[in-house]
Amino acid sequence: MDLSDWISRRADLTPGKSAIEYAGTVLSYAELAGKIDRFANVLGTSLEVQPGDRVAYLGLNSPEFIALLFACARVGAVLLPLNWRLAAPEHVQLLQHAGPVALFVEEKFIAHVDTVAEQFGSIQLINFEHAYDGWTSLAELDLASRREQAFSRPVGLSEADGLLLCYTSGTTGTPKGALLSKRALLCNAQNSVHMHTLTSQDKILTILPMFHVGGLNIQTLPALYAGATVVLHRRFDVDGFFAELAERHITLTLVVPTIMLAIMDDPRWSDTRPGSLRMISVGSTIVSADLVTEVCNWGVPMVQVYGSTETGPIAAYTPATEAARKPASTGKVAVHCELRIVDEAGDEVEVGNKGEILVRGENLMTAYWCDAEATREVFTDQWLHTGDVGHLDAEGFLYVDGRIKDMIISGGENIYPALIENLLSARPEIEEVAVVGRPDDYWGEVAVAVVVTSEGSALDAEQVLGFCSGQISRFSCPREVIVVEQLPRNAMGKVLKGELRQQVIQKWQQQNGQKPNASGSAT
Fold it and tell me: Is residue 1 part of a domain?
C-alpha cells in the first residue's frame, strides 16, 4: 500500500473513527481523507506542482501539516517542514538550498517571513487564512481548484520517490537536508508498530514539534498507519500534558529528556498515576539511566529509541519488558533494520568494545539533498555511518557512548564525553552537564565539564572534579569545570555542542591573553 493511500484506506474501513484530536476539535479518518483530497487538488491544479517539486511548511503542529504531507505523497512532491524556531536568515538559507515552489505559512509567522520574502525568488507564498500583499490564501487556491478539473494522480510514482526533506540540526556545521522516501517512512512506521505494539486502539499524545523526524515519525505517522488516534498539541506545555493524561486515556507518548524533567519537576507529578498510559518513549540525545529508572519506578516503562534524521529515525529501541532492567541501553536493533559496530578499519569489534555505529535498512534516507559528496561520505555499501560511538553487551543491547566528532583526544587517549556526562548527571547536586574539548598546550586537548547546578546547590568546580576522581580513568577526568545557568539547546532539546565548545574555547583564549578568530582558534 502506497503511503498516499494510508488515510483513504482507513477512511474506507473506519470512516467515523477519530484520527486527530486537536484544539477541541475531532477529525475523523473520513474528514482527514477529505482534507487530503482538497490539499492534493490545490497542489496539483492551482499550484501545478510537479513530481519531485518541493513544498515547504512553516507553522506549529496542526492537522494541516499532516494533510499537506499526505497530499504531497499523492502528487509526488517533497514536503520540507521548517523549524519555526530558526531566525529568518536561517530560513532563507534552507529555502534557497531546497528550492521549493510553494511555502505554506501559518498566520502568526507572516511577519517573520515578510522580512526576508524578497530573497525567496519565485516561491509562491500561501497563508492558511487570509490573503495579504504578495500572499495567496489557501481558501482562494481551494476555490480555484474546485472550478478546475479534479486532480488525478500522476503516473509513474513509486514508493522509492522522495517525500520528506528534513534538515539536520546542524550542531556540527552547516545543516544538510536528509531526503526520506515513502518506502523509508513505511519501513519506519513498521518499526514503530513493533516497538510500541501499536494498534488501532491506541491514543497517541504528540507534544514534540513535527518539523523534526522524532515528533513526526516515531509515533504520529505510525499511529495513523495503524488506524489509531493522535491527540495533537500545537506545542508542548506542562498544563496540557497533565490535562490530557487525566482526561483523554492516552496510551503512548514521546518525550525528550528536558521535557520529561519539566514534567517531573511539576508538583502534580507526584500525585499523578499512569492510568491508561502504558509506555513513554524517549530519545534525541543520550538519556540518563537514572531518568529511565525513575520513570519506570513511577509505574510505566520508559523506552529509549535510537536513531537520527538520516535513519528515519527508528534504528534501535528498548523492548518495554527490558526498560527497567537495561535503563542505560538504547535497546536492540529495530525489526526492519541492521546494525554493526566497527573500528576505524571498518571491521566489526568484539562484544563490549567501542566503535562507530553503522545502520542499514529501507528506513534510511535516500541522500543528502543536492550534496552527493556528503552522501558518499556517510554511506559504505548501503551502510550508514552514524558518527555515533557505541558498544553492544553480551545480550546484544546497544549502548551509545558519544559521537565521533565529540570525541576528545588527549595525549593520544580517546575521551568519550558521554562517559563523564553520565557519571556527573547521576549526582543530585548537578541538574545538567555537557562535556566538550578545548585545546591544551601539553595534552593537545583536554575535557571541560560545563555544569548547571541543582536549585539551592552551592557546588563548586573542585567538588565536581572530586566526583570523577577514582570513578573514571585519570585521563578522562575534566581538567576544568565551568558552572553556567543553562546549556545552549536546539528545538529538540539537544545540547548545541558546537556552540558550547566555541564558548569554552573563547573563554580559555581570553584567560590566556589570546585573540580568537572567527573559528574560535587562537591567532
Answer: no
- E strand spans, 258-404: 279-282, 302-306, 316-317, 332-333, 338-342, 355-360, 367-368, 379-380, 383-392, 398-403
Cell digits of residue 115: 522580512
Report the SS3 class of residue 385: strand
Query: pLDDT (tens digit, 9 = 90+) per residue, 233-253?
Result: 999 999 999 999 999 999 999
**Could you tell me if 457 and 427 lie in one domain?**
yes
DSSP H or E run through 483: strand 480-483
**Co-location of 193 and 152 in the same domain:** no
Concatenating the DSSP letter of every residue in 211-243 gives TSHIIIIIIIHHHHHHT-EEEE-SS--HHHHHH
Which one of 404, 422, 439 terminates a domain? 404
What's the confidence (pLDDT) of residue 32? Answer: 98
State how far the alpha carbon of 99 is from the alpha carbons of 55, 304, 370, 405, 427, in Å: 9, 35, 11, 30, 48
Q: Do 203 and 140 have their domain in common?
A: no
Q: Which domain holds residue 422?
A: 410-511
Extract the C-alpha cell encoding 406: 565529540
Q: From residue 371, how far is each of 78, 165, 262, 377, 463 by CA, in Å? A: 17, 13, 38, 10, 47
Strand partners, 338: 360
- Report the SS3 class of residue 370: coil
Give me the phi and psi of 216, to 5 degrees please. -85, -45
Q: Which residues pair with 196 in a beta bridge?
A: none
Angle, to 10 degrees, between the axis of helix 417-425 and the axis of helix 461-468?
110
Q: Which residues pair with 103 in a beta bridge?
A: 56, 125
Instruction: Give which of 224, 158, 218 is closest to 188, Cα–Cα.
Output: 218
Residue 103: Cβ within 10 Å count: 24
Query: How sure is the predictor about 517, in pLDDT bands with cuts at 50, 70 and 90?
Result: very low
pLDDT of residue 173: 58
User: Phi first, then psi: what are they for 214, rounded to 5°?
Assistant: -65, -55
Q: What pLDDT is recorded for position 286?
A: 82
Number of H helices, E strands in the chain: 16, 27
